[in-house]
Amino acid sequence: MELLPRSPAEFGSARYWDRFFRQRGQRPFEWYGAFPELCPVLHKYVRPRDKVLVVGCGNSELSEQMYDVGMCEDIVNIDISEAVIRQMQERSGSKRPRMSYLLMDMLQMDFPDAHFQVVLDKGTLDALLTDEEEATLAKVDQMFAEISRVLQVGGRYLCVSLAQAHVLKKAVEYFSQEGWVVRVHQVASPGDKQQFVLPVFVYVMTKFRKIPGSAPQILEICPEEQDKPMRVESAERLVAAVKDRQHYALLCSQLGKTPCREQVSLDLCDKESGKPRYTLNVVDSPSVKPSRDNRFAIFIIPQGRETEWLFGTEEGRRQLASSAGFGRLVTVALHREQHYEGMAGIQAELSGKVMELAPPGLPARQQVPFLSVGGDIGVRTVRHRDTSPLSGDYVVEDVKGEGTSYFRRLIFLRNRNVVQSEARLLAPTPLPGQKKRRKDKKKPSPAEPPAAIDKSYLCCEHHKAMVAGLCLLGGPDPLPASLAVLVVGLGGGSLPLFVHDYFSQAHVAVVEIDPSMLEVATRWFGFSQGDRMQVHISDGLDYVAKLAAEAPAQYEAIMFDVDSKDLTVGMSCPPPAFVEKPFLQKVKTILKPEGVFVLNLVCRDARLKESVLATLRDVFPLLYTRRIEGEVNEILFCQPSPAGRRDPTELGARARALEGALREPGRPWDSSYVLADMLQAVKIL
């Protein structure tokens, strides 16, 4: 039986609808949005004494159900199909004496002005606005003008719609320009998610007298999970907010039908501020044999640990899901701008939402476990927050690591899942006779002086490898008599600090383009300048170029640990200009013949990386590489002369000798830091 129109234009044809309803017979036809789902929204805007007009009523049961539950009885239904009006008059008959059905075109209604308090439209606008042709838009303008005419001031036009972008945009722009208040409600999803993928929305347009001039638009959205509307600043933002919810509904529908081959990531935002509160990653493990108890689990990542390889990378999350033994694992990262009321509070907040991401076949009442490391949500204290003209917004925060360890981190918020600098904090040592802090005593506030920095500990594996590269320096003595080091990129200062403190003969020059970073390193990371440590606020490109022209061959070691501000390039460290051939030749010029140039390379673009390596080989005859396990970082050790080539055995011996010289009695040393281990995986390119 052919019930669909040959062309969208037929949706406006009375002849089409007569044929449609004759063929369908007495069975009610609901485009979308059954009464149980619509009822909570309609109750807010339809009062028992209101006079209600339903345009394009069809043979939907909506009016009858509103009448029967006592929501409203004074209801007038109109439609252009004579067949359906006759059918509905017979169906309702004397059972609903105050409700009427009239044959009428909503584009030319016979009602007097300001006759109704409510106009209800369930799918009619969607059926009419099938395209954006001039003739179609003219009909829609006529429809809106007639609705406006028959509504009283303070009356509501309620439009049930699937909210296609062009339909919503047209309605919002028309009525907001008329000075009406526009609010969009998302209707709660029905229990049967197989029936409709896209969610249903109700536009609520409240009529106000038009104020001359440019009155501010009032545009709001009410997601299904909350009653309080959220204000948006423009029609475009309202359309975008609706589109986000449509995409989420489609995603949930797909996740509920089939396993996901690729990891899915989404943000859940705070109701009040609209800022991200949780970041969820959905990870399926095909290798896990499903049973009743291992289908689905939620893993709460402790605060401050979302940057770790296990939680912050796709490969790490796959390993986590597999080792946890669940077919589908949803990892949940907590955002630093938000406050959380412990694991129980997070579980209560997320339990309903995460079930929308459940795998296919999960029983409706299945208990889903919430997992974490050590059963808590971790500790994160923001110590400092500021904005740099060069680096953008950044924070300094203290986070709890494994066991009793605490770390201080510098995070650039433009890339919030990457730790820019990190240092371990020393546990406070009570003074003689001083009592320990009581457990119930108030925690220190971020305004208190920072805890002491453990300068003997290099948190970053790539920094450990960069320091180990000093074993490549020539001479029989593992500790050279003099050591001039240039470090480009300060960050928190842990790399130049370690070189300064452990190589007593070293004179370290640091080049940093951002003066804010010098302030951060000094105030929060224990950095200080002195006779053997000087910071130069300058662009590294300019500084090296000037040295190459004025004072060549003066450094035993040059280290580049500088990030790129351009996130569109597939290389986040260093900026591309730092690995162009003319500049690398200047680096070689200021390096002594027996010296070493150490570069921290972070490049996800395979072609770009190969190009960088080729350029480095052109400039430096001897090139070693060291991959950092579990990270994108690759440390490159470049030397200007092939005569300095050393085999792995010799490198290991020099590393052990250097470590022995650095481990002076009474000087703290991280026992996990073995220089020889750092050089075991070094390869010559």
3D structure, described in words:
The protein is of the alpha/beta class. The chain has a nine-stranded mixed sheet, sandwiched between helices. Strands 19, 20, 21, 22, 23, 24, 25, 26 and 27 form a nine-stranded mixed sheet that branches. It is elongated and about 110 Å long. Mean pLDDT is 84; it is low at 1-12 and 438-450.
Mean pLDDT metric: 84
Distance between the termini: 72 Å
Report the uncertain regions. Answer: 1-12, 438-450
CATH architecture of the largest domain: 3-Layer(aba) Sandwich
Region (Disordered): 424-450
Protein name: eEF1A lysine and N-terminal methyltransferase
Domain Methyltransferase: 50-171
Biased composition (Basic residues): 434-444
Feature tags:
Methyltranfer_dom; SAM-dependent_MTases_sf; alpha/beta; nine-stranded mixed beta sheet; Rossmann fold; 685 residues; multifunctional enzyme; methyltransferase activity; disordered N terminus; elongated; methyltransferase
What is the secondary structure topology, with strand pairs?
Elements: H1 14-24, H2 35-45, E1 52-55, H3 62-68, E2 75-79, H4 82-92, E3 99-103, E4 116-122, H5 124-128, H6 134-150, E5 151-161, H7 165-177, E6 181-186, E7 201-206, E8 219-222, E9 230-232, H8 235-255, E10 264-269, E11 276-284, E12 296-300, H9 309-312, H10 314-324, E13 328-334, H11 342-354, E14 370-372, E15 380-388, E16 392-400, E17 406-412, E18 419-424, H12 461-468, E19 483-488, H13 494-502, E20 506-512, H14 515-524, E21 533-537, H15 540-550, E22 555-560, E23 571-573, H16 581-590, E24 591-603, H17 606-619, E25 622-627, E26 634-639, H18 648-662, H19 675-680, E27 683-684
Parallel strand pairs: 1-2, 1-4, 2-3, 4-5, 6-8, 12-13, 12-14, 19-20, 19-22, 20-21, 22-24
Antiparallel strand pairs: 5-7, 6-7, 8-9, 10-11, 11-13, 15-16, 16-17, 17-18, 23-24, 24-26, 25-26, 25-27
Helix pairs in contact: 7-8, 15-16, 16-17
